[in-house]
Amino acid sequence: MGETLYFSPLSFPVYVMAKPAGPMCNMDCEYCYYLEKSELFAGRGGYKMPEDLLERFTDEYINCQTSPFVQFTWHGGEALLRGLDFYRKAIHLQQQYGRGREISNCIQTNGLLLNDEWCRFFKDYNFLVGISIDGPERIHDRYRKDCGGRGTFKRVMRGIELLQKHGVEFNTLSVINDYNAGYPVEIYRFFKEIGSRYMQFSPIVERLGTRDDGLEMLTADDRPGDSEIASWSVNPIAYGNFYIRMFDEWVRHDVGQFYVQLFDATLAGMVNEQPGVCIYAKTCGHALAMEHNGDVYACDHFVYPEYRRGNILHDSLVSITLSGEQTRFGNDKRDRLPSQCRACRFLNLCNGECPKNRIATTPDGEYGLNYLCPGLKLYFKHVYPYMEYMAEELRNQRPPANIMTSGLV
């Protein structure tokens, strides 16, 4: 409990995911956890971030960083709905307030609005583009439909082809759900074929119930009561097997060529380095989300009234990040681990995963176990000997890719 805080303005940059179009989206994915957030802003006008708020955010965000490198992250909803002129203005303001910093931008999009003009802009200003895509057509279109109920795969692929045409760097973000968890190798090979060298897979785990604020997707602090796991949530064992089968393909052929976020995080944990993604770190709380109206929340997965930390129009980003509420939120990731987790041999690799998924109960009745725990254990047990070899190669300043010719795989 007396451990030094994991995040502070001196040890970690302030990081805010900005939502310039709020929860507004041109798709209607069945499993989306963010569309319903529009309920929080009902009757308050549109969902577009005004330019005066963009200017205030840009100035303060750059000014509060303690390193020469500043990364802006634009997310949604669908971030491109804010329009290209908004991002032109963002670049202008970054140049105006940059103060000699090295500034980069990344943006997450479903790809439907991409055209030559967008792609030229992204290329000109070196944007990293994250594309939301769940796999080949029949897999992607299972849940990722437009507002008319039509599949979106072909339009997403047109967007990817335009990014490639213009030489824009992109990576892929996929949701692991109850359906596509059964096709890991097919999905992995598909992403290789379309040129995604960096792949992120996010498990969908949601409980449905009733909250006083009208939201139906519950937080981990909303105790079980009258609730149910959403039908599209990934099964824990299927989740573990998804990664095991993908890892077996990757470790034989692609180490050092293609990158899967969880594999990178696991290897980092093996050599006692930070995992590069908050869900596998000991504590969290340094990555916040800012809505279109300036409201700042503890995390992108905790945009609920009780996790609102302030508004940038009235509160500084540093004061929000280092507030008592946010400090407790970040440290609770470590301090509220069930005893079963504290005794687990994989604790340093998992650290309880994301707090949003801690909705299960241990065999001895302790609430707060990660729903995905059985699958995570399967995965870590399977990959451990291979990760151990790669970690030793790293310690000896040799490439982990040596494992592919080691005779171990």
Please describe what this structure looks like.
There is one protein chain. With 409 residues, the chain is an alpha/beta fold. Helices cover 34% and strands 14% of the residues. The protein has 13 helices and 14 strands. It has helices at residues 51-63, 84-97, 116-124, 137-140, 153-165, 184-193, 236-253, 261-270, 317-321, 324-335, 339-342, 347-350, 373-395, and strands at residues 15-18, 69-74, 102-109, 128-132, 170-176, 198-203, 207-208, 228-229, 259-260, 287-290, 295-297, 308-311, 360-361, 367-369. The protein has a ten-stranded mixed sheet. Strands 7-8 form a two-stranded antiparallel ribbon. β3, α3 and β4 form a beta-alpha-beta unit. The longest helix has 23 residues, at 373-395. The model is unreliable at 1-10 (pLDDT under 50).
Provide mean pLDDT, rounded.
Answer: 93
Radius of gyration: 21 Å
List the quaternary state of the chains: single chain
How many strand units?
Answer: 14
Percent in helix: 25-40%
Primary descriptors:
alpha/beta; 34% helix; 13 helices; single chain; two-stranded antiparallel ribbon
Brief overview, please?
The chain has 409 residues and is α/β, with parallel strands linked by helices.
How would the blueprint of this fold be written?
Blueprint: E1 15-18, H1 51-63, E2 69-74, H2 84-97, E3 102-109, H3 116-124, E4 128-132, H4 137-140, H5 153-165, E5 170-176, H6 184-193, E6 198-203, E7 207-208, E8 228-229, H7 236-253, E9 259-260, H8 261-270, E10 287-290, E11 295-297, E12 308-311, H9 317-321, H10 324-335, H11 339-342, H12 347-350, E13 360-361, E14 367-369, H13 373-395
Parallel strand pairs: 1-2, 1-10, 2-3, 3-4, 4-5, 5-6, 6-9
Antiparallel strand pairs: 7-8, 10-11, 11-12, 13-14
